[in-house]
Amino acid sequence: MNALATILEVRGLSVSLPIGGKLTPVVTDMNLSIARGEAVALVGESGCGKSMTARAIIGLPPPGAEIAGSIVLKGQELTQLTPSERRRIGGREIGFIFQEPMTSLHPTLSIGAQMTDGLRYHLGLSRTAALERARELLDRVGIPRGRDILAGHAHQLSGGMRQRVVIAMAIACGPSLVIADEPTTALDVTIQAQVLDLLARMREELGLAMLYITHDLEVVADFCDRAIVMYAGDRVEDGQPEQCLTRPRHPYTSGLVAAIPRMGGTSARLSPIPGQVPPVGAWPAGCRFAPRCAIADEICATRPVFDAGVRCWRPLASPAP
Amino acid sequence: MSPPEKLLEARDLAKTFGKVAAVRGVSFALRRGETFGIVGESGSGKSTLARLLLRLIEPSGGGVHFRGRDLTSLGREEMRRERRHIQMIFQDPFGSLNPRMTVGELVAEPMHAHDIGERGDRGARALKLLDEVGLPAAAGARYPHEFSGGQRQRIAIARALASEPALIVADEPVSALDVSVQAQVLNLLLDLKERHGMTLLFISHDLRVVEFICDRIAVMYLGEIVELGDKAAICGEPRHPYTQALFASAPGRPKTARLAGEIPNAADVPSGCAFRTRCPRAFDRCAIDHPPLRALGGERFAACHLVEPAAEAVS
């Protein structure tokens, strides 16, 4: 990969949170890089650390969080910046889209006031110029009659429209990276498909690097170039989404894929992963998946290293060349 | 072959909330022992329909017949007794489990309410039910907040089983669960259904889950059933343009036609066919005539002017 094209480079990222008075790791040894125009999926179940990774990159970790490692955005080390420098760069260069648009939209401020805020602060536009730019942005995300929408409030919009407004806000200041945390999970399937199409179009037109956080690999398989599967704070597999779905190498990825009911499938029962995700603070010392893994043996009591796209001592058959 | 026994039948069921027509003339029959799915997007009326079937809310029109009795005509006490046979499982089990009761008490409660078994045996039976849903006996002495989402849904299922129902209505029971836990709960529902010979009405927006668990499926749009049939037919060869668009949008499907726009407001339902405002094939007649749910043959039904009944269904 061309070093110049790399937008985001995360190396050795660890996040620890104060839980019950004790600093407890929730993300460990996270590595990821995203190039211009590339979309990377961060996949895992609740508590795997995928959203915490995103919050560390955005610079909005929970209070008391301790962050180690390096986060480089367009050649600049973000972890060394002061909070105000971080806000200035983050607000311009990184756009966010969250699962529930109502949490990122203010209930009583007009859509116009919310959209122009960032434009005026980060781009120094006048009120009139910012409003005009907001209308253009709404047009771009498929909302005609932008002027009416700008005067209105979030509760007057449908879920799909709200998410379009949030996408317009995320791209407003011309970011190089967009982080989307389960942006379609709260939406109906037909609307989900529309929003995914829109995100794909924005990525293409604006050359955005995208980090797409999801619990459902199948939803983003044909949208993302790469998928990173997380389990209990660890990156356990990193590969092409299609390969993770059809020829997974980590036993956890394999279990996750087998647990999804497949359209057109004929089996009478699903194949769940036995047991449960260990809670934060109670991770096994060796491989964190070992207690639920069908092929674990003695060596799995030692923490595996991440090698050739997988963190596993006994990876499943290699993908075909 | 004798026709399958109807356990429950909805006849022209309707519910309006003020100007909002949430359910508009829904008729279907549940066969004993089957898993019947209702799919639809938010605003389709599927959850309102479930509550009407249990008479948790009163219908504005139509009726519900359960084992031949018209539930809508029953008095309060008779209805309470009938509820023993129809239990419901919700999306958020936490909302339906009293936080101050132990899990053992929660599971035994329906037995007290419906006077099932000897009082002294109920505690032991509750533990047996917990075992059946895959929870250890020690769980009985603990409180709901001590359990994960998947475990709480197991508790809700044990509680639903306690009154030995003939029908379980499950409204998005696995939608809040992680994929690996969701698979555990779906398998459990299938095992229990087989073991107890129950009928299951499964409501979900998740097409993959519905296809996996259901025998027959009804697709709802704006308060109406627009298509109904066997799983294989609905998922494999949908006939109604809405069903076609819905399944084309499902994850893991080749991306073909996208449905434009969003579901209209139920306070302002379009004239004629309610789907016409988003339908890629709508024509003049769709704005004027309301298409009824018609038999297509092979126990399939669809409500669309463009879907012609098969020849054998007409003859």
Description:
The complex is a heterodimer of chains A (321) and B (315). Chain A has 11 helices and 12 strands. Chain A is of the alpha/beta class and 321 residues long. Chain A has a 6-stranded mixed β-sheet. In chain A, strands 2-1-4-5 form a 4-stranded antiparallel β-sheet, with helices on one face. In chain A, helix 7 packs parallel to helix 8 (189-206). The longest helix of chain A has 18 residues, at 189-206. In chain A, 47% of the residues are buried. Chain B is α/β, with parallel strands linked by helices and 315 residues long. Helices cover 33% and strands 23% of the residues of chain B. Chain B contains 12 helices and 12 strands. Chain B has helices spanning 46-53, 76-83, 93-96, 103-113, 122-132, 149-161, 179-196, 207-213, 231-236, 241-248, 284-288, 311-314, and strands at 6-17, 20-31, 35-39, 61-66, 69-70, 86-89, 167-171, 199-204, 216-221, 224-230, 294-297, 300-302. An 8-stranded mixed β-sheet of chain B has the order 6-7-8-3-9-10-12-11, with helices on both faces. In chain B, strand 9 (216-221) and strand 10 form a beta hairpin. Chain B is globular. Chain B starts with 5 loop residues before the first strand and ends with a helix. Classes of the chains: A alpha/beta (321), B alpha/beta (315). Chain A binds chain B through residues 45-46, 158-161, 188-194, 197, 215-216, 218-219, 221-222, 255-256, 258-265, 268-273, 276-277, and chain B through 41-42, 148, 150, 178-184, 186-187, 190, 205, 207-209, 211-213, 235-236, 245-247, 249-253, 255, 258-260, 262-263.
